[in-house]
Specification:
The structure is a single chain. By secondary structure, the protein is an all-alpha fold. It has two domains: about 55 residues, Homeodomain-like (Arc Repressor Mutant, subunit A, Orthogonal Bundle), CATH 1.10.10.60; about 120 residues, Tetracycline Repressor, domain 2, CATH 1.10.357. The chain has ten helices and no strands. The longest helix has 27 residues. The chain is elongated and about 60 Å long. The two termini are about 35 Å apart.
Amino acid sequence: MENALPTCKGRPREFCTHQALAAALRVFWSKGYEGASMADLTEAMGITKPSLYAAFGNKESLFHKALDLYEAEKLAYIRDSLDQPTARGVAEHLLRGALKAMTSQTEPKGCLGVIHSVACGSEAESIKAEVVARRASVQTAITARFQRAVDEGDLRPDVDPEALANLLYAVLQGMAVQAGSGVPSDQLDALVDSALALWPSR
């Protein structure tokens, strides 16, 4: 999804909205939607609560904008994976890209989407629904790419594209949970190797 944020040119406000939004993203990523208080957000963003509301709306609106930024800046590897010449290349690019993003030394560990897809409080219901809908959209695109691979003979005709996409997402979600709990990147790299070793042969 394209990210349309106000630029930092001129002086419409006393702070850079992009930098403030990036700070909010890190808070949501590390603490979850429910765990991120307004005090946490305003402190990290370096702004007052009235300024937050004026620039981004309420907490839910701020999260949606942060999610847009996350997809635009942290999940570019997903878009690139769909352009790989083979279905196995799609899977490997996706898994390796996810591993790099989930174990970054400069960002919170794990996956923002997975964190919020399992949120269970009443406050987070609409957030969970939005995250699940976005994930489903990506999963549909991967399924379509695998269907193309079947049609072109890159995958065997007996391979179910939807089931294969579901399996790939199950591995990704498992990686995200493990990365978030501190499993070392070399162990997750070995997990990627094992998943690719199970890839259906032609």
